[in-house]
């Protein structure tokens, strides 16, 4: 098991903070009426994206979900390209045509958020197949929620990855709810990780609010995949602090009550305290990091607001590579 | 020119492209040692090995998803989904992911994949193994759809489909797999988006796809006895569609009949009719005809299946329905079918069912 270095710890801390601040700012601009559509805030789950992606390079591949901003920030996508996409500008990662749900950057190995629950799982398996056929050293990581584990795509994707021994790690962010349905009502098991047994792969449940725990488990699984040892199913138990989408109060299904105790375990606050205790991060340094992130965010939003909107002829562009 | 089977032409296309480009590989159920349910991958496993000819579990969504994922990594997978009926199980991946990834990602995704499948009935395989669903895929922006009707077209089009950087749904036909036709020995490609006039004629344009091409050619032969000369146009690629070839033909003949095995309601033929109606309106001398599958699931009973699937006789009937005005009767005096009595003749320019036609088929709705 790889020990957490100071460098990795600081990367994890800063990445979690970047995700948190990005989501908080996007909530603010959304509520001010700047953004069309919906957003699905990742707040609360930052330890998972950061604890996993710290082990990944630009050439490793990830697939994500409707709650994908956290994964995209952790994979290295820039604030300006992301905000421009949310603002539906041509300077966005998807030229304004994907939006929050489909942010992607092939160059950074971010194969896209998918709005279809479970949809990204077989694609990650496919990316791992491509990696294996090309004899690359990279891995694919598929992020999905507890809801996705009941889809056929989950079953098919894990089974195929297992029988072909592909370099892919499946990361279930079990935030206890599939939209408004609590886990206890949508599956008869408590630990999603148990399902790994059905696919003859290791299944590990981990506290998704603890970055160090996620770091260790993910590190092991990713190393295993990288050296040809096949896939792993990780279940990170976590909680989103907001509703399913922004605007969902969570009152209909008890989420607003459940979330209270999870907020006490806010990963950024607890990890910050841990780093201070380790003497790896002073309060002054924390403020510095926060200031830098905030400055970068404001510049990104400014950039997005000033960017041009698509032209009418952009509507039918990029449907095909060539007709 | 040598003659080989449609399925052999497909094996050749796959083999040649796999030899030419090591990023091409196959995945699907039973394609390895078994050679595919209709033997269209026969011998490839032995030649190219298990890494490049991969038997999958029965997991349609994973097969298509894996094809997409590996295409995003720069490979060129050819996924075999067998019966088009089974492709419905993977519709999420085909429609929501494969078709849309490039657009959703602002044009920056690599999606060079081919999904091979086959449609059509004729073997009493009943409702879940006999459908023709090409219209579903033509309807989705982001996909290209090809339907080859002959061994020569199958080989040339499949090679082009594999080299195309967009996702292609390549729809073969189960009844065509063992048909034989001339196929050049030397390498050739047939570009996507190019129709072919399979038979020239001046009186009526028959746009036919897949299995209906041969039936239309046979119908055309018989119709010469009526003095009617049919032009048979095979679009080959349903999208992108070679509209110009079809419209040029309509401008020449003034009559359009569209025939496909798929069910008539909202079938691909309706799209062609709409295009003709809006872009060749002034050239049409008669309302267009559609000769298509009936509006029921494909039945098991061979007698009923024969009525479901359009036959040569239906195409003939359909053509004749377009030649019943008095001016038509004057123009084609040598027609052998009994002309209607003067009292029952319709007004010039209108149409009514001809009674007493010796070629009346039993397949009316």
Give a quick precis of the structure:
With 323 residues, chain A is an alpha/beta fold.
Describe the structure.
The complex is a heterodimer of chains A (323) and B (365). With 323 residues, chain A is α/β, with parallel strands linked by helices. Chain A has 11 helices and 8 strands. Chain A has a single domain, classed as Thiamin diphosphate (ThDP)-binding fold, Pyr/PP domains (Rossmann fold). In chain A, the strands form 2 sheets. Chain A has a 6-stranded parallel β-sheet with strand order 2-1-3-4-8-7, with helices on both faces. A two-stranded antiparallel sheet of chain A has the order 5-6. Chain A is globular, with a radius of gyration of 19 Å. Chain B has 365 residues and is an alpha/beta fold. Chain B is 35% helix and 18% strand. Chain B has 14 helices and 14 strands. In chain B, strand 2, helix 2 and strand 3 form a beta-alpha-beta unit.
Tally of DSSP helical segments of chain B: 14
- The outline of chain A comes out as globular
Which structural category do the helix and sheet elements of chain A fall into?
alpha/beta
Low-confidence stretches of chain A: none
At the third CATH level, what is the topology name of the largest domain in chain B?
Answer: Rossmann fold
Write the layout of secondary structure elements.
The complex is a heterodimer of chains A (about 325) and B (about 375).
Chain A: H1 6-31, H2 46-53, E1 61-64, H3 69-74, H4 79-86, E2 110-113, H5 120-133, E3 140-145, H6 152-163, E4 168-174, E5 177-178, E6 181-182, H7 183-186, E7 203-207, H8 211-226, E8 232-237, H9 255-263, H10 267-277, H11 283-306
Parallel strand pairs in A: 1-2, 1-3, 3-4, 4-8, 7-8
Antiparallel strand pairs in A: 5-6
Helix pairs in contact in A: 1-2, 1-10, 1-11, 2-8, 4-11, 5-6
Chain B: E1 3-5, H1 6-20, E2 24-28, H2 44-48, E3 53-55, H3 60-72, E4 76-83, H4 84-87, H5 91-98, H6 101-104, E5 114-119, H7 134-138, E6 144-146, H8 151-163, E7 168-173, E8 180-182, E9 196-199, E10 204-208, H9 211-223, E11 230-234, E12 237-239, H10 243-253, E13 256-263, H11 268-279, E14 289-293, H12 302-308, H13 312-321, H14 326-331
Parallel strand pairs in B: 2-3, 2-4, 4-5, 5-7, 6-7, 10-11, 10-13, 13-14
Antiparallel strand pairs in B: 1-8, 6-12, 9-11
Helix pairs in contact in B: 1-8, 3-5, 9-13
């Amino acid at each position: 098991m790889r020990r957490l270095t100071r460098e990795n710890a600081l990367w994890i801390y800063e990445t979690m903070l970047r995700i948190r601040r990005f989501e908080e700012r996007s909530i603010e601009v959304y509520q001010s009426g700047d953004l069309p559509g919906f957003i699905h805030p990742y707040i609360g789950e930052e330890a998972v994206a950061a604890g996993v992606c710290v082990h990944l390079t630009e050439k490793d591949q990830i697939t994500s979900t409707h709650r994908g901003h956290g994964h995209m920030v952790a994979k290295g996508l820039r604030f300006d390209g992301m905000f421009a996409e949310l603002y539906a500008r041509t300077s966005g990662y998807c030229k304004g045509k994907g939006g929050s749900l489909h942010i992607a950057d092939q160059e950074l190995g971010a194969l896209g958020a998918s709005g279809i629950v479970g949809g990204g799982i077989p694609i990650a398996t496919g990316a791992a197949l491509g990696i294996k056929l090309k004899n690359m050293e990279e891995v694919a990581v598929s992020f999905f929620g507890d809801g996705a584990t009941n889809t056929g795509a989950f079953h098919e994707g894990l089974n195929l990855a297992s029988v072909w021994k592909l370099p892919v790690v499946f990361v279930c962010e079990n935030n206890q709810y599939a939209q408004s349905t609590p886990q206890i009502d949508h599956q008869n098991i408590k630990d999603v990780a148990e399902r790994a047994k059905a696919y003859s792969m290791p299944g590990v449940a981990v506290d998704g609010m603890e970055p160090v725990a996620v770091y260790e488990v993910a590190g092991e699984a990713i190393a295993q995949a990288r050296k040809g040892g096949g896939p792993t199913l990780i279940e990170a138990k976590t909680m989103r602090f907001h509703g399913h989408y922004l605007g969902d109060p969570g009152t209909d299904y008890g989420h607003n009550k459940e979330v209270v105790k999870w907020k006490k375990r806010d990963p950024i606050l607890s990890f910050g305290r841990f780093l201070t205790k380790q003497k790896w991060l002073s309060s002054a340094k924390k403020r510095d990091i926060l200031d830098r992130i905030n400055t970068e965010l404001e510049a990104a939003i400014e950039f997005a607001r000033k960017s041009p909107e698509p032209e009418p002829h952009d509507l039918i562009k990029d449907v095909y590579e060539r007709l | 020119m040598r003659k080989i089977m449609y399925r052999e032409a497909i094996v050749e296309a796959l083999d040649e492209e796999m030899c030419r480009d090591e990023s091409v590989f196959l995945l699907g159920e039973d394609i390895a040692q078994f050679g595919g349910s209709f033997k269209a991958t026969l011998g490839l496993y032995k030649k190219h090995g298990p890494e490049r000819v991969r038997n999958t579990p029965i997991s349609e969504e994973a097969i298509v998803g894996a094809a997409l994922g590996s295409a995003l990594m720069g490979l060129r997978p050819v996924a075999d989904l067998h019966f088009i009926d089974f492709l419905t199980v993977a519709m999420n991946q085909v429609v929501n992911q494969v078709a849309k990834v490039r657009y959703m990602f602002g044009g920056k995704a690599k999606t060079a994949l081919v999904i091979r499948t086959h449609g059509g009935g004729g073997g009493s395989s009943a409702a879940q193994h006999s459908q023709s669903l090409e219209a579903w895929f033509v309807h989705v922006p982001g996909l290209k759809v090809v339907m080859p009707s002959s061994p020569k077209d199958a080989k040339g089009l499949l090679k082009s489909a594999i080299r195309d950087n967009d996702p292609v749904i390549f729809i073969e036909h189960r009844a065509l797999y063992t048909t034989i036709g001339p196929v050049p020995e030397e390498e050739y490609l047939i570009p996507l988006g190019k129709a072919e006039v399979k038979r020239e004629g001046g009186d009526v344009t028959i746009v036919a796809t897949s299995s209906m091409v041969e039936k239309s050619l046979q119908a055309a032969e018989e119709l010469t006895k009526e003095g009617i000369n049919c032009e048979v146009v095979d679009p080959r690629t349903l999208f992108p569609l070679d509209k110009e070839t079809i419209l040029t033909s309509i401008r020449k003949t003034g009559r359009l009949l569209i025939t496909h095995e798929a069910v008539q309601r909202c079938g691909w033929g309706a799209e062609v009719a709409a295009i003709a109606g809006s872009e060749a309106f002034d050239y049409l001398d008669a309302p267009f005809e559609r000769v298509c599958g009936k509006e029921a699931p494909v039945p098991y009973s061979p007698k009923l299946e024969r009525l479901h699937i359009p036959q040569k006789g239906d195409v003939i009937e359909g053509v004749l329905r377009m030649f019943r005005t008095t001016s038509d009767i004057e123009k084609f005096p040598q027609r052998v079918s009994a002309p209607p009595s003067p009292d029952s003749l319709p007004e010039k320019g209108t149409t009514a069912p001809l009674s007493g036609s010796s070629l009346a088929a039993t397949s009316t709705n």
